[in-house]
């Protein structure tokens, strides 16, 4: 990727790494020399994705973890040992809600599933790994948001209510996190990958997963000094929340 630095000796942890944007981000970070902890919901899904990247000569460690479960995230952090001292944290795990769902006509079970994965999952992972970044005074946190979660610009009305609301909440979490940790050498930003050809985006989407993950890799390799943070990015540019 153009305009990004190397990551030799760095550890990156990518949730949702077994497919889509997460898998593309894991590949991009590993291609720059990072050791990537690839997190999938199950050990089997993580293992399949890791085998693909390992066959490309990349340094990947698979682990299964349902990030919506705080106990599983704590177990993962313990099992990783030295690899828990991550330099880059990419929160890409997410699920979609049904297109017809509205705020007043959403299935409560679907609402809970979307919020537990898309929002609580980010919180659990941040809670487990960011305190170590603060102690080391170094780190990058990138949360995968969506244009549908923006308060301004395109996609501010319509269906998919639980998904939209969950991504808006992730934006708020990221902005608050940045305010808490930016003075301690840790950058925290959200990004919109755009409509990409993934399991969630469908085969007719205009962008590849690699194109969607480009901003993640770029954010992960920025220098801390003088960097803007606590922002929402798309195609390496700041966009309104």
* Mean pLDDT figure: 93
Secondary-structure-derived class:
alpha/beta
Q: For the largest beta sheet, what order do the strands appear in spatially?
A: 3-2-1-4-5-6-7-8
> Radius of gyration, Cα only, in angstroms?
16 Å
CATH architecture: 3-Layer(aba) Sandwich
Principal-axes shape call: globular
Helical residues, percent: 40-55%
CATH overall fold name: Rossmann fold
CATH homologous superfamily title = NAD(P)-binding Rossmann-like Domain
Report the sheet-strand fraction.
15-25%
- Biggest sheet character: 8 strands, mixed
**Overall CATH class:** Alpha Beta
Instruction: Give the total of beta strands.
Output: 8
CA(first)-CA(last) distance: 26 Å
Count of individual helical segments: 6
Kindly give the count of domains: 1
Poorly predicted spans: none
**Helix-strand pattern:** EHEHEHEHEHEHEE
Task: Describe this structure as you would to a colleague.
- Residues 10-154 form the Ketoreductase domain.
- GO terms for molecular function: oxidoreductase activity, acting on the CH-OH group of donors, NAD or NADP as acceptor.
- There is one protein chain.
- The chain is of the alpha/beta class.
- The protein has one domain (11-231): NAD(P)-binding Rossmann-like Domain (Rossmann fold).
- Helices cover 40% and strands 16% of the residues.
- The chain is built from six helices and eight strands, in the order E-H-E-H-E-H-E-H-E-H-E-H-E-E.
- The chain has helices at 20-31, 43-54, 70-80, 108-136, 161-181, 209-220, and strands at 11-15, 35-40, 60-64, 88-91, 139-144, 186-191, 232-234, 237-239.
- An eight-stranded mixed beta sheet has the order 3-2-1-4-5-6-7-8, with helices on both faces.
- Helix 2 (43-54) links the parallel strand 2 (35-40) and strand 3.
- Helix 3 (70-80) packs parallel to helix 4 and helix 4 (108-136) runs parallel beside helix 5.
- The longest helix has 29 residues, at 108-136.
- The protein is globular and about 50 Å long.
- The mean pLDDT is 93.
């Amino acid at each position: 990727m153009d305009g990004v630095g190397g990551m030799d000796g760095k550890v990156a942890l990518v949730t949702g790494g077994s497919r889509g944007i997460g898998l593309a981000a894991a590949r991009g970070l590993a291609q720059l020399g990072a050791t990537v902890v690839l997190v999938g919901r199950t050990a089997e899904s993580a293992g399949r994705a890791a085998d693909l990247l390992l066959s490309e000569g990349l340094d990947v460690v698979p682990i299964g973890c349902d990030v919506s479960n705080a106990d599983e995230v704590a177990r993962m952090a313990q099992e990783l040992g030295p690899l828990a001292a991550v330099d880059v944290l990419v929160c890409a795990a997410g699920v979609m809600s049904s297109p017809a769902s509205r705020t007043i006509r959403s299935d409560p079970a679907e609402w809970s599933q979307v919020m537990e994965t898309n929002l609580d999952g980010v919180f659990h992972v941040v809670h487990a790994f960011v305190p170590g970044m603060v102690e080391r005074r170094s780190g990058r946190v990138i949360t995968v948001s969506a244009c549908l979660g923006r308060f301004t610009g395109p996609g501010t009305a319509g269906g998919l209510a639980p998904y939209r609301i969950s991504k808006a909440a992730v934006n708020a979490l990221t902005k608050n996190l940045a305010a808490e940790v930016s003075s301690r050498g840790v950058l925290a930003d959200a990004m919109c990958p755009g409509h990409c050809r993934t399991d969630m985006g469908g085969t007719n989407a205009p962008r590849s997963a690699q194109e969607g993950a480009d901003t993640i890799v770029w954010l992960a390799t920025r220098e801390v000094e003088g960097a803007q943070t606590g922002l929402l990015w798309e195609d390496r540019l700041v966009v309104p929340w």
